[in-house]
Design brief:
This protein has one domain. About 60% of the residues lie in helices and about 5% in strands. A two-stranded antiparallel sheet has the order 1-2. GO terms for molecular function: calcium ion binding. This is EF-hand domain-containing protein.
């Protein structure tokens, strides 16, 4: 549980820094660098979170780089 809370805190701080900078790229949202954007990682970005299910074409609960590329289209 401690590790989860630490990870969540890091994601929140990282997200806040990039939102302030006005950048929303796959790399900035993929905080754990696993090659996918989870729902948890998307939570810091309201517009992305709203589109998450529509972007998740294979309905696996995460966005690949290809799925994320359709964000904002």
């Amino acid at each position: 549980m401690k590790n989860f809370l630490k990870t969540l805190s890091i994601v929140a701080l990282t997200t806040a820094a990039f939102v302030q900078a006005g950048e929303l790229t796959f790399e900035t949202v993929d905080a754990d660098k696993d090659g996918f954007i989870s729902m948890t990682e998307a939570e810091g970005h309201a517009a992305l979170l709203e589109q998450f299910k529509a972007l998740d074409a294979d309905a696996d609960g995460q966005l690949s780089k290809e799925e994320f590329a359709k964000y904002g289209e």
